[in-house]
Structures are given as structure tokens and as C-alpha cells.
Amino acid sequence: MKFNDFIFNYRSCLFSLIKQERYFSLVKRLFLLPYKYLISIFRDIFLNKNIDKINLKNNSLDEYFKYFGCDKSSLVHGYNKFYDDEFKNFQKLKINILEFGIHFGASQASFSKYFPDSVIIGVDKNPYFKKFFSKKIRSLYCDVSDEYSLHLLREYLKEEIDIIIDDASHIPDHQLNTFVQMFRMLKSKGIYVIEELDIFQSFPESYNKNFENNESEIRNFLYTIKDKPSEIKKFIKNENILNLVKDIEWVKILRGNYIVNNRNVSEIAFIKKK
């Protein structure tokens, strides 16, 4: 992690906690975050796999996903075929990719190999615990439940973004906040992706605690754009997302193959910007 990025991560986390009036958490993180940063440097030097030294040229995206243990592969969600279709025209270009949701960094590692001239920016509430290292991959802090944290991230990033992927909390409110804040950062003809668009319906105890009608505003918005674009104002009342309609060229909503409790939970949306 670059030192400048750590300073942003540190300040962004603390400012967000101050705004939320979470002062006990603030005091803990004043001391915990520098420690995590030092540990992340140690891990990058001695423990994490340096993917810049791994020769995996000309492999398919699914092979990269499998190699790094990413759940986007055909072994789990089966998103690889959709990503291949939508991303193949970007593969040889010099692009910037922003992905929400780092976990151990398998997805960012895979994309860094698939897009050899790319810069990958991974974003997470805990950007310090990845298992892979690359000079092409940055790790930044953001709490997608907090609009102010998203605002700070948007202000910090100077790059125009070609691809944005939301593989973070999968909570509908968070997906909506992230889309409203970050879609404007996307380049013309860029692609915005939202994974597990309907998983909240299968696991309401984890993803849908505060929803009365088991509905997702962002999901309803995307389906309306896809199926009934002329009726968008009839079904969608949120002005923040209605303002984005004019910038959307098309929406595709597809389904992978991951089954949990006899239900497919691999719904994924691709949104192309005009």
C-alpha cells in the first residue's frame, strides 16, 4: 500500500467515524490503523504472493479466477462468461478498474492478469488483509454504508474509471448509495457492474434487516430501465437515481449458477454508460 493511500485511508476512516459520532471506535482506530498498515507492509514483503512475478500469460479470465481462488469463477458464481463477453474489448487497453470488496484480493489479482496494462483499485472497509501483492493494485478504504465515506473516496480519486465493480456488502441500500455516488466517475462507454443483485431475498437476516417489503430500489430501477424504460418515472421516485437515466446506454441483468438452499443467488447487472 502506498503511503499516500494509507494517509487517505486513515483520514477517511476517522472522518467518517467522527461524522457518525462513533467516538469509541474512533479512539480504537487512531492506534489500530497504523498498526494494520505496518503489518500489511510486512505481509507484502514476506507473506503475500507477488503476482507480478507469476507468469500466467494468455490464460482465460476463468483460469485466472480459478488460480487465485476467486468466487467469480465457473466453480462458484459462474460470472466468468459474462465478464468475458463485456470486458473483452477492454483487455488490451490501458484502463483503470475500481472494485468495491477486496476480501483477500483474489478478484483484483485475477483482473490484474487479465488486463495487463491496467491499474486496479480495490476498496474495502478493511483494505489491509489481502493475500496478494502487485505494483498495479492499490487498496483504499471506504465504508459503502456511509455516503460521506463514498464522497471522500470520490474526491480522492483523480483517475477516470473505465470499469467499476460492486462486490461489497450486497445490501441493497449500499448498492444504491454506491451507484449514485460512483456512476458519475465512469468514463463514457465504461461499464458498471453490481454482483449478487438479489441475494438479499435469500438471506434477509444478513442482507435485508431493514426492508419491510423485501424490495431493492436499485434492482427495481435497473429492471425498469431494462424492460420498461419509457415508464421509469412511474415506477421510480428517487430523484438521485432518476438523474442518472440520461447517462445509461443499456442494462443487462444475467444469472450465474451458484445455488444456495435450492435458490440461485448469482444475479449480476452490467450497466453501460453513454
How is this structure best summarized?
With 274 residues, this protein is of the alpha/beta class. The protein is 40% helix and 20% strand. The protein has helices spanning 3-19, 23-46, 61-68, 80-87, 106-114, 147-156, 172-182, 204-207, 217-227, 232-235, 239-242, and strands at 49-50, 96-100, 119-124, 132-133, 137-141, 161-166, 186-195, 248-255, 259-260, 263-264, 267-273.
Structure report:
This protein has a single domain (3-273), classed as Vaccinia Virus protein VP39 (Rossmann fold, 3-Layer(aba) Sandwich), CATH 3.40.50.150. It is 40% helix and 20% strand. The chain has helices spanning 3-19, 23-46, 61-68, 80-87, 106-114, 147-156, 172-182, 204-207, 217-227, 232-235, 239-242; strands spanning 49-50, 96-100, 119-124, 132-133, 137-141, 161-166, 186-195, 248-255, 259-260, 263-264, 267-273. The strands form 3 sheets. The chain has a 7-stranded mixed sheet with strand order 5-3-2-6-7-11-8, sandwiched between helices. Helix 1 (3-19) packs antiparallel against helix 2, helix 1 (3-19) packs antiparallel against helix 6 (147-156) and helix 3 (61-68) runs antiparallel to helix 5. The radius of gyration is 18 Å and the shape is globular. The two termini are 33 Å apart.
